[in-house]
Amino acid sequence: MKFMSTWSVRPGKTAEVIAKFLSTGAPAPSGVKVMGRWHRADLSGGFTLSETDDPKALYESAAEWADLVDIQGSVVVEDADAGAVLGKLFKK
User: Fold this and answer.
1) pLDDT in tens, 32-83
2) Which end of the chain has fewer surrounding CB within 10 Å, N or C?
3) How far apart are the first and last CA of the chain?
4) Where are the domains of the chain?
5) What is the pLDDT of residues 1-33, one digit of tens each?
6) Which of 26, 29, 27, 14 is nearest to 68 (CA)?
7) pTM of the model
8) CA pair distance 37, 48, nearest whole angstrom
């Protein structure tokens, strides 16, 4: 499954987030493939697209950053898959 995680830096935590990111590189947990990670230009947060069959691994990663950032995650579906489902439901 693919997951979109967005994060927002907690107030007053920007320097700590930067230091942790630079020292660790924020590696993906075992069993998670990071397909891409993007950062907001104002340093306030960003988002990651990941693929895994183990949501627990994503939870573990979120827990490691929970003191510094607020994280929201969602399962996402690609256009082709969404179109196939919608085509079945909304036939004309």
Assistant:
1) 999 999 999 999 999 999 999 999 999 999 999 999 999 999 999 999 999 9
2) C
3) 30
4) 2-89
5) 999 999 999 999 999 999 999 999 999 999 999
6) 14
7) 0.84
8) 4
User: At the top level of CATH, which class does the domain 2-89 belong to?
Assistant: alpha beta
- For 29, 54, 81, the CA distances from 60, given in Å and listed in that order, are 8, 10, 28
The answer to whether 3 touches 56, Cβ cutoff 8 Å, is no
Cα–Cα–Cα angle for 61, 2, 39, rounded to 5 degrees: 60
Cα–Cα dist 14/45, whole Å: 9
Structure tokens at 9: 């830096």
State the SS3 of the chain.
Answer: CEEEEEEEECCCCHHHHHHHHHHHCCCCCCCCEEEEEEECCCCCEEEEEEECCCHHHHHHHHHHHCCCEEEEEEEECCHHHHHHHHHHHCCC
pLDDT of residue 52: 96
